[in-house]
Design goal:
9 strands, 33% helix, alpha/beta, 13 helices, Rossmann fold, 2 domains, three-stranded mixed beta sheet, six-stranded mixed beta sheet, 437 residues, GMP Synthetase, Chain A, domain 3
Amino acid sequence: MPRQTELKQPAFKQRKRQPTPSRAETAARRAANAEAAAKPGKASSSKASSSKASSSKASSSKASSSKATPVGRAAKRPPGKKPAGPPPEAVFLDDGGGSAADGAASTAERRKPKGRRGTAAPKALPPRCGTVALVGRPNVGKSSLLNALLGQKIAATTHKPQTTRRTLRGVLSTTSKHGPTQLVFVDTPGLHAEKGGLYSFMLDEALDAAADVDVLAFLVEVDRQTRGIMKVDEEALQRLLQRAPKTPVVLVLNKIDVLSQKAALLPVLQQWALRGLFKAYVPVSAHERDGLDDLVDELASWVPEGAFVFPEDSLTDQSERDIAAELIREKVMLELQQEIPYRTAVLVEHFDESRRGDRRKPLVHVAAVVVVERDSHKSMVIGKGGARIKAIGQRARKDLEHLLQCQVHLELFVKVEADWTQTPQGLRKLGYVRTNR
């Protein structure tokens, strides 16, 4: 019979699990450590006695691994199994005489996960404040743009040229991409050929304003530039650059809302860009309030840094009395035809606010005179049976009540001042007098 070979199971060295110390042993070790910390000279004897007390257990574990449980870390256990008894307490060595709780707190602090480094708060931008002149030939929408930027009507606007006769300042306090910004806009009369009298006064008003600002906003009507740059715009620009050659100029292409195709804007921009005279080109629509934020950001980049000149809630430096006169004259121009509107003026003779603070019925009483040059003009302003002057008053009262935020009692009169637009005495009497700047 053949000899059968006995198959033996290969011997694997089994690693014994390190016994878990009991609570008594753990307490003894803690006491020994505390005694050693308190008496440095007897640290070796304390450790020796502690090792003798555990010699029996140490000899039985020689066959196991020589690795000991790390100080400050609990003994490992196989995954998936729960310890038979309560978990052992971790032992912390404290050379400075602190307690185990102190050591645990310091370790927990070291193991605390570090969060992301926070980004620094953005540095506050310094305020900016400067003046911007709205310039261009007549009837390109300068006053309409001013009203749109301020969100309040303070300038007279009509579809007829030469509506603006004096410079008018509007204050816009806002926050642009350059930080807190205050722009003082100067609405100017249209640049035109000098004809003497009132026209000379308006031209000087515009050119002097252009020479005394931080940046110029030159307005053109984009819908009238599609066939080429208009000669009157080029003449107005050259007149402007002669008076303010070093002032930065931003081209504002107004009335983009009337373009049937936005692609028609690009050729106009290219034609003006060939001149090389502008710092920037901003298309806007004052009527639709489109592109105004971009315009404010661009203008803010050209004004200097500095504190605000006007309070943040200021809207204009003009008095309500002066604004009332302009709004009434606007309605006169809208109601009249041909040359008569350009030979009229409005004087506010009475502006009574004594009842404006009345809680029950606030009221402002305004009495104004419409001045014309001819007796025939007077009858036209009054109209048949006073119908036209009544229509003028109704339209003006609506704007005045919106401006003054109360009921307005408006009285209008018509007066003849012969040839006042051509005589120095007539201009001076109606307030068209230039002051030394």
